[in-house]
Amino acid sequence: MATVFEMIINGEIPSTRLYEDESCVVILDINPIAKGHALVISRECYPTFTDVPMETLSHMMEVARMVDKKQREVLGAEGTNVMINNSPASGQEVPHLHIHVVPRYTGDGKTPAFPKGKYDDGEISKYGDLLKL
Ligand code: 5GP
Fold first, then answer.
1. Rounded Cα gap, residues 130 and 16, in angstroms
2. Is the confidence at residue 27, as pLDDT, over 90?
3. Ligand 1 nearest atom to the CA of residue 95, by list position
4. 24 CA to centre of ligand 1 in angstroms
5. 38-42/79-83 β-pairing
6. Percent helix, strand and coil across the chain, each rounded to 5?
7. I need a labelling partner for 45 at 20 to 30 A (CA). Which of 6, 39, 70, 87 fits?
8. 79-102 core/surface letters (b: 16 or more CB in 10 A; e: else)
9. Residue 56: enclosing H or E segment and its boundaries?
């Protein structure tokens, strides 16, 4: 079944389009974290960050940077959150790769409330050993 983003890219669902090229489309998120919140969407449907060819991902990051620049220039954003939710366990709702670019302002109170934890004694080095690349 087509994802909502495929339907948007094919023009079957309306969207507010900011940019498009041969490999991605940029639209405004319909439920923005902050007004101007944009989504850089791959034209091909790759379900996750892990599936997309590196060349496409790197191009999408360049486009995300263009969006960041525009949000700063036009909206006066002082920062942005550039995020990819990667697989449903991370909160990804639409299984079609997209990069969120959310304009941020000092003191806007929108920082995601990820609860932060602590390592037990010696545990951080175990995770370090496990995850060394
Ligand atoms: P995810 O949770 O998959 O990282 O993010 C999906 C995003 O797509 C959500 O922020 C949601 O608001 C947005 N979204 C879902 N359906 C539509 C739609 O029909 N139009 C637009 N413009 N955005 C959508």
1. 44
2. yes
3. 3
4. 16
5. unpaired
6. 30, 20, 50
7. 70
8. ebbebbbeeeeeebebebbbbbbb
9. helix 54-75
Asked if residue 111 has pLDDT above 90, the reply is no
Placement of tokens 């959150």 in the chain: 81
pLDDT reported for residue 114: 81
| Ligand 1 pocket residue status of 2, Cβ below 6 Å | no
- Name the residue of 29, 40, 45, 99 to mutate for ligand 1: max ligand atoms within 8 A of Cβ: 29
> Cβ(46)–Cβ(78) under 8 Å?
no
14: tokens are: 């309306």
Residue 28: enclosing H or E segment and its boundaries? strand 24-28
Which pTM value belongs to this model?
Answer: 0.95
- The residues annotated with a catalytic role in the active site are 98
